[in-house]
Amino acid sequence: MPDISKSMAENLDTLYRTFSHTPDLITRHFQMKPGAHALLVYFDGLTDKPAVSNHILHPLIHELDSVDELANASAITGQTQTVTRWADVEMSLFRGNSVLFIDGLSYSYVFPTQGGPERAIKEPDAEKTLKGAHLGFVEADGQNIALIRRYLPNRELKIKQLVIGSRGKTTVSILYLEDIAKPDTLEEIENRIRQIDTDHVLNTGELEEYIEDHPASLLPQFIITERPDSTVSHLLQGRIAILVDNSPGALIGPVTFLTFFQTIEDYSSRWLVASFIRLLRFVAFFITICLPAVYIAIISFHYEVLPLRLLISIGESRAKVPFPPIIEALVMEISIEMLREAGLRLPGPLGQTIGGVGGIIIGQAAVQAGIVSNIMVIIVAITAVSSFIIPDYDMASALRLIRFPMMVLAMMFGMVGIVIGLPRHANIGQHEFPLMLKKVQSLNKTEETAPFFRATIYAGSIRPLQDCKGQGKAQVEKRNHKRSRIG
């Protein structure tokens, strides 16, 4: 594109050719106080109109005596910039800025007047908490960074911003603590983001697929959270947070498999209660992927392991069922998944009603019709409840998907198939990038050695000496010794 011309007529012609069929582009011609002809251009809906009127138009028409006063005028809010290329003008307008053209000048002024519709900050629906903070990210990356700075007002918090997408020009912010995060990990993540070649990145999920090692993997390789307190907790453990403009989620990495079963809310409860809940999540993990498969394997191959009375009870409940256990399980599991998706797509109260009442009605009707047995309804219900205990939604969705091939293996090979399938699916998550966290020194050494339990605050808040770049070794040793005595 050509550079900005001194002629207002030529600039207008280039402007209309560049933004043809754009009814929301506002062009305002006016005469400045010194007498120069000026043109202010901005997009309706992307700018703060009161700021444009009160802090730009009014001073230019009634207050400023010369064009030279424009850049340093106190009435103009923010930082005023000058640009000479039309490509910069185009990008500035799409970001919500206002651009001022003055007849006779071969450059234009850019005023930061970003506005437009914004969503109020509220608790994220997918990460409800009882005792933690009730704040969540929004679609504006500036507000999300401000929320993180409220929790972490520290000069070591650094932010690198990149622009990706040949058309969308999406801003991606990389947040990390300079004295804790590993430089090689930061460099690897930054290089992967820079190598993205696409038109546009719409949300955090798309970015995750671009930078992870194995996009075809079932298990997630990053954590996506909408809570600023959870993001800060990960930053304090040496991880890196990635924010995508126009997306309310923060991408956290690198992570290990066990990280998906730990939440910031664990530290809002007593350590014994939190440890019990954390153990419960791991029990729910095995129930989610194995319980239907174990039932199929026992009924089809290993019924001799059941007590006689239980075996007779199961046999009586299955006497009227004409299908093998695998068909029973598939029918009920698919029905549960359909009800789950229907509940998510419907409005809140109606979705809960459909999920609860629909499950009861379908289960009771299927038993009375002889399609499934009573024990299968119990198995599927326990499995569905267990999947909701997993705190990370992406991990829970992956585990629900894994149980289907596990059921097929159990139907074909019995318990042998389950024993073969578990290590096979466990290897899906063992990629190089998620396990890079093993090279990152965590602030909480007890969490590294006992990830299945939540350590007490004093036992788990000793910072490794090699990570305390801003503090003397003797000072850190003294603080750690004091905390050890108190704990």
SSE diagram, text form:
Layout (H helix, E strand, L loop, with lengths): L7 H11 L6 E7 L5 E7 L5 H15 L17 E3 L2 H9 L3 E5 L5 E4 L29 H11 L5 E8 L5 E8 L5 H12 L9 H8 L11 E3 L2 H9 L3 E5 L5 E4 L17 H30 L7 H10 L7 H21 L2 H21 L5 H16 L3 H21 L1 H12 L18 H5 L23 H14 L1
Antiparallel strand pairs: 1-2, 2-4, 3-5, 4-5, 6-7, 7-9, 8-10, 9-10
Helix pairs in contact: 4-7, 8-12, 8-13, 10-11, 10-12, 10-13, 13-14
Structure description:
The structure is a single chain. This protein is of the alpha+beta class and 487 residues long. Helix content is 46%, strand content 11%. The protein contains 16 helices and ten strands. It starts with 7 loop residues before the first helix and ends with a helix.
Short synopsis of the structure:
This protein has 487 residues and is α+β, with helices and mostly antiparallel strands.
